[in-house]
Amino acid sequence: MRHRAATVVVRPRTPLPEIVLVVGLSLVAGWIVRTLAPPSLVRDGQRLPVGLASLPGPGTHHEAAGLAPSSVSDEPVPHFLGGAFLAAHLLAIALAIGLRLVRRVRARLAAQLLFATLIATAAGAAAMLAARFGYGDRLAPREVLLGGVEVARYAFIAALALVVIFGFRDETERIRT
Predict the structure, then answer these.
(1) Which residue from 128, 94, 129, 134 is spatially nearest to 114, judged by alpha carbons?
(2) Global pTM?
(3) Does residue 54 or residue 136 have the better pLDDT?
(4) What is the tens place of the pLDDT at every residue in 97-143?
(5) How far apart are CA 174 and CA 165, in angstroms?
(6) Which of 29, 77, 88, 159 has the most CB atoms lying inside 10 A of its own CB?
(7) Domain ranges of the chain
(8) How many C-beta atoms lie closer than 10 Å to residue 47's C-beta?
């Protein structure tokens, strides 16, 4: 009676959970940055005078009274996509670095919390950077910071859910047959 040695099949693992995390958080960052937008210079198809457009309207978060809003607030879709695109790049870089670093941590809970914190920090920073690039000094620093913190809260929960559900897997999955 001969015993056969188990063969190990190595196949590349799909990065789908990480891709979904980056895309989802970048869209959340773009959306929250868009909610911080100063009032538009265009209302009812007509361009408003700068003095009237810079006044805070009902339900806006614009605190820098007297400053004209940036021109990107007139074009919400390109600005949203640009902010989300910038956030996606920054988050992808943070995710690649973060996965390499936390795989070295032996304690599972500590690694999960470290990863979630890293992703939350990167997402918050990406949202604040997108707001600064998009609106410049037309947004109060407090509003930019609050927007970044809101994105970081969502990112922390999403990253923690990702590592709890999917775990930290190696680059390949090993299957014993």
Answers:
(1) 94
(2) 0.70
(3) 136
(4) 888 888 788 788 888 898 899 999 999 999 998 888 877 777 788 98
(5) 19
(6) 29
(7) 8-40+71-176
(8) 11
